[in-house]
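Q: Can someone sanity-check these two? First one:
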Amino acid sequence: MTPAEDCWIGVDESGKGDYFGPLVIAAVCVDTHVAQLLRGSGVRDSKTLSDRTIAGLAPDITGLCRTSVVAIGPAKYNEIYGKLKNLNKLLGWGHARAIENVLEAGCPATMALSDQFGDERFIKDALMKKGRSIRLEQRHRAEEDVAVAAASIVARWEFVRRLERLSGEAGITLPNGASALVEAAAKRLVRDRGSDALSAFAKVHFKTTAKILAG
């Protein structure tokens, strides 16, 4: 690693707007040399890439960089959300945990960068000893930074893999997003397994739940 001032952490999440599947937060530690390599390999915001491209890039990122992935499955997500009643607080905890993990792994960064999703105190208040020693910056379109873009790719890769495993457990394909296909899958899940099954596969505070159960 290069000196700390040339090293920073990018943090991003996947699954926040998806009814089915986990919420995944990833942190990636980069230095200026690695950042150049990542840009050269095509690393950019995961929303501009196909899942196939993401699956090819993510192992390269985890091979080059110290990374941390915090994955909150639907059951745990629903439990935590039920207590906090605030998605930004949950995101702040996940971001802080991912930052802390990558620092514990030896990342010498003095700064962490994330997308702007709420008051930065949601992250700062959740940081522990190591995390409180670094500067936290939240920025609109933070994915333009290669470290945050790399984190978005790692988070999306983990989300897709976990959603596939959940589909296997459910016995049906659980689509991503929050669309008519998602509603159809949720209706089938309720028909086959009962309404209580939703909490094991979906984020039940979404309006989709009330819509499905009312129907």
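And here is the second, same format, sequence then tokens:
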Amino acid sequence: MELILSTLINGLSLGGIYAMIALGYTMVYGIAKMLNFAHGDVIMVGGYVIYVFMAMNNPLLAILMAVIFCIILGVVIEKVAYKPLRGASPLAVLITAIGVSYLLQSLAQIVFGSANKMVTVYEFGDIKLFGVTVQISALVTLAVTVVVMIALTLFVKYTRLGRAMIAVSEDKGAAQLMGINVNGIITVTFAIGSALAALAGLFYLLKAPSISSTLGAMPGIKAFTAAVIGGIGSIPGAMLGGILLGMVECIAYKITAIAPYTDAIEFSILIIILLVRPTGFLGKKRREKV
């Protein structure tokens, strides 16, 4: 019972981190129809900002500055790298995104070096839950993820800006004719996604207090996998895919025989789901106009 509860909480916590990152992927794809593969590296940048400001021994300031810096970075990336390619082919945008990803990693190596940096944001300690020792940081991660997903869903459904996002995601041309600033909506989407990436970087440091220039590489890929599994473009789908992937990873790590193949198992699940349901669990089929 203790093992099951511990695995469940850790899986939900890890899944919450993947979901937080996947929300950024799914929002950008849903509205701008592009895959921002530099999104994972924004997590790394947020982590380094926390590392720098933790020298002042003020966790709240470090977190706030990470969110602000990542928002500015996301907007700059969108304006400089992606906006000029608005009418370009998807392949050109994809290559640019990969280029931005490597650029951020290289800049981080130049500034901070290639060695891992240790950074302790805050020591939450442990708590006894139903007789099982659980890290409070895992519960905080899960709680914040749920709150963010609910807030984001309500924002998209019930605010004027959120409804404008839905309109742009459905038909950019028609939205522009209705007076919606499409470029502005895309910029706001990048800002929100980057803020979520900063929070994901925080939760990764709470889980493992070590940072390097490649911190966001694998989590970014796994979060993209989660977004596709859940249905890319769907906010609840990103949450569902992230939780599923986190649970699978934690369960696999507990089984000694298959622990070394955890990543392979996760990506195999992606392939199987795409074969059975190409749009993901909560994704919708879109009709292309000709």
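A (reply): Looked at the second one. The radius of gyration is 19 Å. The first helix runs from residue 2 to 32.
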